[in-house]
Design a protein that fits this description.
The chain is an all-alpha fold and 200 residues long. It has nine helices and no strands.
Amino acid sequence: MLIVCFALVGFAGAWYAERLTARRCGQALGRVHRYSLMIASLCSFALIPLRLPASEWGWALLIGPVLVYICISDLRERRIPNAAIGSLCIGSLGRAVLMGRIPETLSGGVVGLTVFLATALVCKHMGSGDIKLATAVGLWLGWPTVLSALLWGILLAGVIVFGLLLLKIRRPHDVIPYGPYLAISLWLCWTELLALCSCR
């Protein structure tokens, strides 16, 4: 029953985030993308009671909708709102203080910022929002788990973009929205489905 409740919260959060961005930019996602996102959010939230300790459930319910909002906004508008990144950073610092993980949190943020800033200098297809989000991901996961999230985010983006290029859905010089891939990798590494090292 608990899993069902969390799953329904995820579905409702995705629906609300999609409606919120649709009102702001005046353009709705396609039906396939919309329902795929809602199903993915439903499944992700169902992982909360299975993969996270009870002390982390409240944090998961707070950042989950923010991550969904980031995914939708970056896919639709190719931008990540500063308010979403800011709320993730503030939540990360508050969580670090309560858990006594300030050094690991700050180190993770520095690593996220450094890795994506260096990548942006080499690859011109990355925006400032991606760099700020990578910093927020590092703050949330801390050192050394941030390395897993950045690695999986880049690999996931590379595989999907390569497939889209093969199918000629994307062009080589199109901007890559890294936001969804970083958000997904944060969630999966935090729940330790893809983590190479534990963040707890």
